[in-house]
Amino acid sequence: MFRHMMRTLGEERLVVVIILYCFWYHIYLNGSPKVMEWIKEKDIFSKTYTFVPIVDGGHWNLLILCNLRKSFNNNYSLCMILLHSFIISEPLKAEPTIRKFVKDLYHTQGKLASSRTIASILLLLPKVPQQRNGEECGVFTLYYIYLFLKSAPATFSFASYPYFVLF
């Protein structure tokens, strides 16, 4: 189903994005150093968007890293977007772990980034469709990827944000 959805978007939409394997973040949370080696091979700093499916405690949500390839000096377009289908579960409690993950991404790629610099990257939590029960979060995560890619500009900009939640 997911591959079919991606094919309907067209190749031009997919060249600006990298989608990480869905359990890499979970493996990272469990302390495996191998994950950063796998991510390094993806060359995430060459793309406009990096999609990080987050599976934590049996719940799925989506982290989108925007414009990591830009320098911190031009951080007006650097941001992280957390799309969460079950807002009741307090998604921002994961923020410290997300920021540590992003810092480790920079270090793995040989880029220096202090905790203060990583803290300066905006973490946005837009309103998105919400699940009705405890079993739909994975489907919503796939849906968010599709919606975002369907209308994502080649370079993320706050001028048109949040274009992807306008259904």
Automatic annotation (TrEMBL):
Residues 1-148 form the Ubiquitin-like protease family profile domain. InterPro entries: Papain-like_cys_pep_sf, Peptidase_C48_C. Pfam families: Peptidase_C48. Keywords: Hydrolase, Membrane, Protease, Thiol protease, Transmembrane, Transmembrane helix. GO terms for molecular function: cysteine-type peptidase activity. Signal peptide: none annotated. The keyword Membrane applies. GO terms for biological process: protein desumoylation; proteolysis. SUPFAM superfamilies: Cysteine proteinases. The chain crosses the membrane at residues 12-29, 49-68. PANTHER family: CYSTEINE PROTEINASES SUPERFAMILY PROTEIN, UBIQUITIN-LIKE PROTEASE 4-RELATED. Belongs to the peptidase C48 family. This is Ubiquitin-like protease family profile domain-containing protein.
